[in-house]
Amino acid sequence: MAAAEEDVSTLGERIDELSISATEDDETTAARTDGNDVDVTTRSCEPRLWGFETRELYKLAINFYKEKEGKAVHLSYEDKLKLVAFTQQVTHGKCTAENAPPLGVLDMIGRDRRLAWQNLGYISKEQAMEGFIVLLDKLCPLFRTVVEAQKRDFEEKQRLKREEEAKKLEEEKKLKELEEERKKQEEERLKEETQRRQIQDALNQQTYYQFKIYAEQQYPGNPEQQGVLIRQLQEQHYHQYMQQLHQNQLVIEDQNEEEEEEKEKTKKKSVQSENVTCKNDDNDDDVNNKDDTNENVNDEDSDEVEDWPPITPAEMWTRKGVEEFKQTIKRETGDAVIKVGHGETVTVRVPTHEDGTCLFWEFATDGYDIGFGVYFEWSKPETNQVSVYISESEEDEDEEEYEPREDLESGSVNGNARPERRTTTPPISVIVPIYRRDSQEEIYAGSHQYPGEGVYLLKFDNSYSLWRSKTLYYRVYYTRQGFKNNNN
């Protein structure tokens, strides 16, 4: 701002030197240039005055002069001639015989204006604008106040404009995010709806003929009522199927949570045992009391810490050739072909063999899928024979088993045995959770390394089916030490 003030004052001094009665000749014009032919007037003027571009400020000055001249601004005749000369220089350039208006014989004012115009010489239009601005500012201090007010108003408008643009961009960004979120939700909804329809269509295709036969028995000769009943049964079957999937998922999550809790308890017990041992080392006077404490801690550990090794994951794969596999099973043995009724679960108990190290299984079904999972019962096998158990649901297998209690000291009551006592249930580990397998399309096979002595429980679950029975073809065998499996 100080540099601009200095340039304005310099330009003002030059304007004062302009004479209306005298004309500049070529020597005076040449004197304005230095040795490098650079215009000193051009070099002393800045392209911006008071924060405005020269052309913008010149327009403000012209409008101010037209509005205030004779009212708030009272100028002398010579000052008016100088201002008019600057405007002529801006509009037409250097005064020449071609661009100067003709003068009358008695036109003294026109003659004075032309002389003032000619005195400006070869200054550029930009310099003429600056000269008009600086002269008007010198003659009328009110002009600077108006310019500053215009500047503040301009800056305020620019600020409001920037804020409006930023607000508009922010709103557009929010609208875009909302639109993307809405599209994402719509895509998720359509995806879920598509999956629901696919599942329902597949279930309807499987159960249509059974439901149709049932509906014809209920409403013979009434196709309309039959169709209504079929749709109701299909809808009910779909909801039951989804509930079963949800329950299976909850069971898996509960098992994972229990395993995490068990690990946390084991970790805490280990820390407590280490703390007790450290106390024994620090205090030799209370050896007996510390030993008792250690024994109690060990007793607690024996009740809660798992006493069997961890289970390694099973390997599972599929292969083609379902029909050939089923024919082979029929030829080899008829016991390996089982009919799993609707709502039933078949459990194949396979004890570990003393000469084996790994269990293998293969199975397929006729026409429809079936649920399959593998469990391991930590109990010493009493036999090497494979046995099959059929239950209405998995809950039936978990019922409490009791056996007569024979106590030689207590004797009998009224000639009958003493009340029954509950037997201890061996722990069971989940190797493969039960999931539905498309065993009607491919042969499902798998293997698992023996974790120790026990009994494998191969569960074939058809409890989710309300109407359809499944024919199961399976084969189980074990491998000896040194056998290498090739899943292909």
**How many β-strands, per DSSP?**
14
Report the CATH superfamily of the domain at 320-393 and 426-480: GOLD domain
Kindly provide the radius of gyration, computed on alpha-carbon positions and rounded to a whole number of angstroms.
52 Å
Strand percentage lies at 15-25%
From the N-terminal CA to the C-terminal CA, the straight-line distance is: 86 Å
Biggest beta sheet attributes: 5 strands, antiparallel
CATH architecture designation of the domain at 320-393 and 426-480? Sandwich
Biggest sheet: strand arrangement: 3-12-6-14-4
What assembly state would you assign to the polypeptide chains in this entry? single chain
- The dominant shape is elongated
| pLDDT < 50 stretches | 1-9, 17-47, 285-307, 399-414, 417-422, 484-488
Give the rounded overall mean pLDDT. Answer: 77
Helix/sheet category: alpha+beta
**Fold-level CATH name of the domain at 320-393 and 426-480:** Jelly Rolls
The percent range for helix content is 40-55%
What is the helix/strand order?
HHHEEHHHHHHHEHEEEEEHEEEEEE
Domain ACB: 54-145
Domain GOLD: 326-478
Region (Disordered): 1-38, 178-198, 255-316, 390-425
Protein name: Golgi resident protein GCP60
Name the descriptors.
488 residues; Acyl-CoA Binding Protein; Jelly Rolls; five-stranded antiparallel β-sheet; 12 helices; 17% strand; disordered C terminus; Golgi resident protein GCP60; fatty-acyl-CoA binding; Acyl-CoA-binding_sf; FERM/acyl-CoA-bd_prot_sf; Golgi-PI4KB_interaction
Briefly, what is this?
The protein has 488 residues and is α+β, with helices and mostly antiparallel strands. Helices cover 52% and strands 17% of the residues.
